């Protein structure tokens, strides 16, 4: 089969033929890769070799596709022809979707509801899984039962970076869990973020002092949870939780920054969200031993929320023409855009 390959760290992407088509194990499914989403982690993998098991490597982690083969133990949920999405194992041969066919662990794969397209589906995995790890695992909030939703709470959840992929899912999941949401974002994005469920937005371009004053005014200090969804606001989050929050509840901070040195904060539980080791075992999970079990527990909830229209996939732009070359074009465009704007996706082939 064909794939987009990187020969070594720092090398350019290129389309090659002759890649072996993987075979699913008993608890896996084989997927025909239709749409893939480009993520910032692709750059870390390509340029630094992070989370790459061997070279040459096929990258990618967010995909929407169609099941073409099912392992024996995976057949309880999946069958040939099902449309699926989610985050695959990063950098593990056979699992990465920048190729015509790839594997997924059945317990970590989402069955895409008929209410969303495969284009939309490929934007769901990384963003929603990462949001869930901070909100439900990190903050300790119970999973949402769509049929018996929680009552609205007179308490806020703050999302720093609400317009990004992770931030958008944080806003929606926090609202589904019954909280009022305040998100920082640009004024241009404010309307879209409010349409996803944010009660209030704050312009992140304002000075930190101005943002602190507005957050205090809007929330009255009624918050105990802050999610830094852009991996660069931990000092700001600490100030909010220490100086602005008046909550008597246990205070929580979650961040997608799992690489910087951040000393523990007195009286605040910190969660460093790292989705990268998903699907792996052993030492790869030493910092998040329950990662796979946590994600598996999120799957039914996410499927129900998507089917009910309570969770809306990211806006997206399809780059280039159908074919593997469009992945390279989309990756290059992401580097030029700096990661702002709609999710960039590429169509590999027709179903």
Task: Tell me what you see in this structure.
- The protein is of the alpha/beta class.
- It contains 9 helices and 16 strands.
- The protein has helices at 41-48, 118-121, 125-138, 165-176, 187-195, 208-219, 234-244, 291-307, 325-337, and strands at 3-6, 13-16, 28-37, 57-58, 62-70, 83-87, 101-105, 110-111, 156-160, 180-185, 200-203, 223-228, 251-255, 268-272, 316-318, 343-347.
- The mean pLDDT is 96.
Number of strands: 16
Output the helix-strand order: EEEHEEEEEHHEHEHEHEHEEHEHE
Q: Which percent range describes the beta-strand content?
A: 15-25%
What is the CA-CA span between the terminal residues?
Answer: 16 Å
Helix tally?
9
Low-confidence stretches: none
Derived from helix and strand composition plus strand pairing, the structural class reads alpha/beta
Report the major sheet: 7 strands, mixed
Shape: globular
Q: Could you report the average pLDDT, rounded to the nearest whole number?
A: 96
The percent of residues in helical segments reads 25-40%
How big is the Rg?
Answer: 20 Å
